[in-house]
Predict the structure.
Amino acid sequence: MDSEARADASERIAIEFLTRLLEDRAQGRERPLSVYLARYRGHEETIEREFARLGAATDLDPATSSGHREDDRHSVGPYRLIREIGRGGQGQVWLAEDTRLGREIALKLLPRPIGDGGSSSLRFQREAEVASRLDDPGICPVYDVGVHDGTAYIAMRHVQGKTLATIIGEARQAGPPATSTEVDLAFRLGIMESAARSLHVAHEAGVLHRDVKPGNIMVEGDRAVILDFGLARDEAAITLTGSHEVFGTPAYMAPEQIRPQGPAPDQRTDVYALGVTLFECVTLRRPHDALTREALYRQILFDEPPRLRRVNPRLPRDLEAVAETAMQKDPDRRYQTALDLADDLQRVSKLEPTRARRVPAPARLVRWAHRHPARAALGLALVLIASILGYLGANLDRIQAQQEVERQRRLELLLERGFIERTLDPRGEASRAAFEEALRLAPDSAEALAGLARAMASNPGVDSALDLLDANKALATRHIGLQRLRCLWLERADRENEAEVLRPKLREPETALDFYISALALNRTKPNRERAARCQQWFKQAVLTAPKPRLLYHYAAAKTALESGDFADAHMLAAAAFRRWPDKWPAWFLRGRVLSEAPRSPADVEEAVRCYEQVLRMSPGNRAAIHSLGSVFTILRRFDEALACFDEALAGDSADVFAHASRAQTLASLDRLDEAVVAIRAALKIEDNPRFLQVLGRLYAKRKEFEQSLVVLRRALKRGIDNWNAHHDLGNALANLQRYEEAVSPLQRAVALDPGAARSWSLLGAVLEILGHHQNALDALDRAKALGLQGDVDHNRGMALTNLGRLEEAEAAYAEALEVQPQSAADRLAHGRILLWLGRFAEADASLQIAAADPSSPYAANARKELARQRRYVDLERRLDDIVAGRAQLAPKARLEAAWVAAVTGRLRDAARLGQEALEGDPALVRARSWQYQWEAARVAGRLAWSKDPLPPDERARLRSQCREWMAGMIHTMRRLVDSRRLEDRWVADQLQRFLRDEALAPFQLPPVLLALSETERKAWKTLREEIDDLLADVGVEPQ
């Protein structure tokens, strides 16, 4: 057992011991310390410490503490008092700081010593003991219990928020509108449901609260936290009060708490108090109220509470039935558990049928007669019947109108549920049930018929959908939208002859209803740009032409705009829906989706979280909201919260394919790749979806299993996947398998599908660079950079620019790469080399030093070689004047190297002279030295020969000859290196093509320059070109 577990065990033993000791003292049967030590063997140290503490507290002179003011003290035990935050019958509650742990807690204080045997102190101790063993987030946990200076205290969690009583009081001040919106009602029902579930946990542990009321329910965020177990009774323990001793707050007490005889209070007593609290929470008034306690008790015992909808007619009928059931005077007629009440509150929130049913008027009359037999005998039945008949006769039209309004309201809710939930749950089980109920409620509803037919087209198939339209032929032929659906399904059923007859009759829609259903039909066909635009326009027309605003039209139009990439329209429509229907969860869901999928700023994504959390408050257990919240958490890299969402979805439905797939992608983000593969395979077992194959292919690639990735991705593409991601993943797998030529096509398809796919442009550029298509590579890499990519894309741009001979630009590209990844040894090495070639030796030294610093780096050895070369160049540059003046003697090889240094530092004439001297000193150098020096010597001579400098003709001729000699030597050296496989063919081809573009070889680029030479010299240049073309052919390039 670790230290934390031992501490928990010690604390439990201490509380259990103190409870037993105080009960023994209260009943006059306290045992000697040795008896308690024997009972708690193994915990002797804890028992002795707590016994001593309690003894010290009870031995204090009461006079020393009775006059001590709580607001004068600075601390109680280890707790520093901050401010008083509550006061009740048992004492005060302070905000305090636990100085040992540095956390804020709530500290409840009882002025009388806890060991004085008084009932209030024993109840105080009972609160600590009871709350400490109830493990539920909706019950305020106890951290510590003790005595300080004669004052008992309980340390508990400081619950942030307001009491429900405060919220109700604020709503009363705001007036009736505070309870008029569905969003406010959904929030309050959620709080009451949460309180009922937590109270059920206490009941299951054998604990009754006995003082449930708004003042003892804290609202923290979107859930309730129950406080104050000071009157709680442990049914398994010896009670502190008799069976019928009255405890509680009168307005919330059940009849059995008031009657001197009758059944003892049980968990149904707390259910009654929850019912009263529910009534007050949604109406802002108590069901029973009187000036005196006696009058209040009479009301509770004999009078029925007012009907909920008479106080607030906007409240649902099912909620009225729930409140009536919870407040039944007979405990047997109430909900038998707090959990039953919680479940019915959830059903009210989700517009599902409740178990509770309204008490019919005759039953209420009978119960009233039982309680008032004398008054009931005076012809009540005749009067009541006459009143009812008179009321019906006078108000029949109004009643029928109200019934029609209610029918239309119910129909709209069912249609919203059906169409919106179908977009969220492709299996469509809940939506199909909604459409079936809607069609029973309104057999003339074209939308209900369209919705049910679409559900049937998905399962069992289009034949069933067509049969349903045929069975409702009169309705189906009146609406062009339904005819469009029929034509679509005839085509899919291979009934082309019937479809051909119907097509000419499909005129353009004119009404909002036909615009909507026609767009639904269009949305089911194979998408293309024109059809998507038309579908979006029709949904928007439905919004604009509807006689009254309808949420399901706004929802469909915004969703289609979002999927079409028209983000401005999507934001506009979602905002309009949210402003008009803030009390409906689909409006919150739509807003969250648009904000998360088309964010205008990082704050939009955070706001999407709030939207989805609000959906879950209004529609608890909403799987689409749980999925979406998990996806947004993944975007925000809050991966643990994302996984919790997907696990919650799977706990509700283990066949939730979306949750399996999303969980796989979140696990992949955490590099838990093996678990991710298991999750996506679970999704594939449920639904053989090509999108899941794509995810699996990507996971294999992340595990470096590129062959498997290739097989799976090709299967996904063959099954119809055609998004840029899939083509990118295929190109990536091929590139990693070094099948570069094959990788080009899928990457080109990726950027064609999404020109903004920066990663695909970057990978395409890298592949083209490897293949030697440097300009095309640079074009692709520039697109990637323009789209915001940095780092690797800059490195690859540097390579392409180097191979194109644009060294200054290459240096700038590597410098940009290093700004993003300053520790990259590859970038440091490449940058250092470019700086050397540019003659910027000091800067090269700094970059190469960093590249060589890590001996474990694969680039360190090359960096050290470049550093040695850099130091030679620095030394040659320092002595260059002496070398040129002949004051420093150098071997021909070193003189050739000095010529290179002179060339890269801009001293071209000195370079040409030193090159000529090196060649005269050792003619074999032209074929024996490094090809880089040979090229630089040829380049220097050629550039000088074709420059505009005033040179004598014989000097120009000598420089042209020198250029040809060095070029011929370089070709010889390169051929030798190619034959020995020390240079790759493709790389040699790249270099030769770059050389041919250099201005030093002007005769190969400008025919007039070649024609201006003597015939002998023209032959020499043509011979050199033939040698270059032969080498190009040898390395696989067709000479141009």
